[in-house]
Amino acid sequence: MDPTAPVGAAGSDRSRRRLRSSLRQAAAGRLAVLPLLLFVAVAFGVPALAMAYGAFTTYAPGKPSSYTGGNLTTSLSGGYLTALLGSIKVSATAAGIATVAGLLLAQAVVTSRFEALRHAVLSASGVLANFGGVPLAFAFVATLGNNGVLTTRLHLTGAGWDLYSFWGLVLVYCYFLIPLMVLSVIPALDGLRRQWREAAQNNGANSVQYWRYVALPVLTPSLLGGFVLLFGSAFAAYATAAAMVGSSIPLITLQIAEALNGNVSADASNIALAMSLDMVVISVLVMALYLPLQRRSARWLV
Amino acid sequence: MASALEDPTVASGNGRARKRTDRSRPRLGRTAILLISGLYFVGPLAGSFMFTVDDPVKGFTLSAYSQIFSVSGLWPSLQLSLLLAVATIALVFLLLIPTVIAVRLGSPRLRSVVEFVCMLPLVVPSIALTAGINILLRWGSDNLASTPFWDTLLAVQNASFPVVLLLAYVVMALPLAFRTLDAGMRALDVRTLLEAAQNNGANRTRAIFFVVLPNLRGAMLNAGMLTLALVLGEFTVSSILGYTPFAVWIVNGNVAGDGTVTTAVSLVSMVLTWAVLLILSVTGGRRSAAAKPA
User: Fold this and answer.
1) How much is the ipTM here?
2) pTM of the model
3) CB–CB contact A130 B262 (8 Å)
4) Phi-psi region at A72: left, alpha or beta (left = phi > 0; alpha = psi -120 to 50)
C-alpha cells in the first residue's frame, strides 16, 4: 500500500477527522490548564497586586486612600535600609560559602562508591533544604546559643562567640543552603563525562588543570545559577531568624513582620508593603540572572 | 601533547605517578570533606539532643521525650498542620495533574506559559505574599461588614480550618510540586501509553485514570512528601496571620519556657521527616535502577 496514493475523498476525510480530533485535544488541553491559571490569579495575583498597590498608597479606615511615593522612600532609608542591606550582606556571604562547600560535598558524594551514602545525603538534603526553619533554629540555639551545650562546655562566649550575630546567622543559614546547593549541583556533576577527564589526562593535564580548564568552565553556569538560587532562598528566609533571635539582627524579613504585627505607627503596614515590593524587585533581578544561566548550563550537560 | 609524543617513557612514568596520587589524594580529601560536613550537620542535632536529655539538676533524663504526648497544645496544633497538609496536597494534585498531562500532550507554548505561572511564586517571598494577604484581610474587615461577602471573609479565616492558609500553602508548594510532577511525567511516554490503552478499548478518561496515573505514582509520592514537609514546617504566613499550627506552637512553647520539650518535639519531627524521605529515596532509587536495564 502506497500511503501517498489515496488522495480521494476517503483520505481527505480521514485527515480532516484527525485534524478535528487534534483540535479538540488541544482545546481540552487548554481547558485542563484553566483551573490552575484561575487559582494562581486569585490566590497569588490578587494579594500580589494588593501588595504593589498598597506600597504606593496611604490607607486608613474610613478615609479615601491617596497615591504616594512616601512609603517607598521611607522603606529605603534609615533602619529599613540598614535591614535591607543587612539581608543582602548575610544572604550573599552565606550563599557564597555554601556554593563552595556544597560543590565540594556534592563532588565527594558523587565520586563515592557507597550508594547508601548518596541516598542518605540526598534525602537529608531534601529535609534540611525544605523543612529546616524552626527546628533548625532550635538545634543551633541548643548547641551554640548563649546557654547552648557547646557554648557552655567550651566557654565559647569568653572566646568572643555570639550566635546572634552576623557570622552566627551565616553559620545557621549554611545549614540549609549547603543541602540546597548539593541538590542543585549533583545533576551537573553527574553530567560531567568521564571521557572529558580521560581526554584531559591523555593530553597531559593533571587534576588541577582538569578542574581549572575543563570541569569548572563547564560547571560555571550551574554554579552561578546555584549561587543565585541560594541567595534568593536566604534572602527570603524568615522562620529561622525569627525563631532564633526575634529582631536583634537587622533583616528585611524581620522588619516586615514587625511592621505588620506591631502597632509601630499608623502607616507601618503600608511601609511593610513597600519593603515587600523592594524584596520582590530584588528577587526579580536575581531570577533574571538565574534563568539564562540555567539555560546555558543545560546546553553542555544533557 | 607534543612532549608526550616525543618521549613516551617519561610520559608513561608521569602517568603512573599521577594515577597513584589521583587515587589516594582525592580519597583523602573526600574523607576529610565528608568528616567535616558530617560534624557540621550532625553537631547541632547531637547538641540539641544533649540539651534535651541533660538536666542541670537531675543529670541524664528522658523526661522531655516522655512529656511529648502530654504537653498541652501539641495535638491541636499538629492536627491543624496535618489537616492543612492533606488539603494542600489534594488541591495541588487536583490543579497540577491535569495540567501536567495537558502540558505533556499539548504545544510547547502551553508548556512555557504553565512553567512561568508555576515559577512565579518563587519571585514573591512568602513574607511579601503574607503582607499582601494581610492588607486584603484588613481592607475586607474595614469595608465588607455590611455586605454578603462578610460571611465569606469570616469563613476564609475560620480558626479550625483557615482557608486563607490553604490558599497560601498551595501557592508556595506550586514551584516544587510542578517540577517534581513534570519530571515524573517527562519520564513517561504518555502518547504511547494513551494510544495503547485506547486501542484496547479504554476511553480517554479511563486511560488517564487507570494507565497514566498509576505510572505517575512515584512522582506523586515525592511531590506529596515535599508538600507535607513544607506545610509541617511552615512558620512565616501562619505566625503573621495569627494561627497556631505545628511550627508556630513550637516557637510559642519555647518562648513560654518549655524549652527542652519543644526542642525535643522539633528534633523528633525533623528525624521522622528525614526517615520518611530516606525510605522514599531508597525505594524510588531501587525502582528506577530496576527499570533501567529493561
Assistant:
1) 0.81
2) 0.82
3) no
4) alpha
